[in-house]
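Today's session is about reading a structure prediction critically. Students often jump straight to the picture, but the first step is always the sequence itself: look for stretches that repeat, for charged clusters, for runs of hydrophobic residues. Only then move on to the predicted structure, which in these notes is written as discrete structure tokens rather than atom positions. Here is the chain we will use throughout the hour.
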Amino acid sequence: MTMTQPLVLPDTGRRVAVLGAGSWGTTFAKILGDAGCSVAVWARRPELAREISQSRRNSDYLPGINLPRNVAASPRLPEVLEGAEHVYLSVPSQSLRENLRIVKELIPETATVVSLMKGVERGTLARMSEVILAELGIDSDRIAVVSGPNLALEIAKEQPTAAVVSSTSLATASDVALAASNRYFRCFVNTDVVGTEFGGVLKNLIAVAIGIVDGVGYGENTKASIITRGLVEMTDFAVAYGALPETMSGLAGLGDLIATCESPLSRNNTAGRLLGQGYDYHEVVAQMNQTAEGLASVAPVLELAAAKGVEMPIVMQVAEVLAGTLAPRDLAPHLTTDTTEPQGE
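Below is the predicted structure for this chain, in token form.
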């Protein structure tokens, strides 16, 4: 029986924990480590925890990337969370609630809890910060969310990018931004948690649409039309739920939308491209070894949209492709011309 090594971290820097050792969780651990924090990562699999701690690598999710020496991992939650000032959550959105129930008693009483996830919970239709609030019972001022044009592998390669940290408390947002800002990762702040979270959710759905038309073989005009009209859908939806429209024009909205739609590194774009090439939903899920949050968010987003009377023709057509009731090649005409009557832009 192989023994798991104890978690060893330097005594310097702010102690933080990252729960989840996938591509984004590991990348954010690197961001925090390069910003001077002492980072403990929870990896469910002991062999992955050993690789991160001993080899400074995560070959499953970030091949070829070296991690800083002040990042270590363990499969044991108590030692990962012990003394953490910030707890960063990077687990699949649909499993967040069950994970929070496991760690609730282990999170330090004064720790700030930060969501790195972009999704809406099926059934409850709750945003990730709402799930955190409900399960942990902490003040909303102790919760923050991070969003923006953040493709994990590019950031892991230290290509410069920006993100936005949002919290109902500007002081909390600023504290997290300071902890996560380094020479290649710049954090801005806002207090529009609703807009910041919905931006991260909604852009995934538009990225699936872009992937579909890319897989079919349509060109840049089609994709530009969908991105532009997709931003309108995102803004209408988010504002209906209390977001500020300017948030949708910022990093969490337009910035994330462009990155996710245009990059082959995007899991949602990849999922859409497979759909466009003729694979059905179950075949797409089987081919992906990482979660494409957009696929899980289509149904709850449409349910939320219907509750506020918001029309989302692009997302509706994506749902039809997922259900197999619309051929991928028939998607774009519906997206760009959902009525024959001339409409104001």
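Discussion point for the tutorial: The two ends are 65 Å apart (CA to CA).
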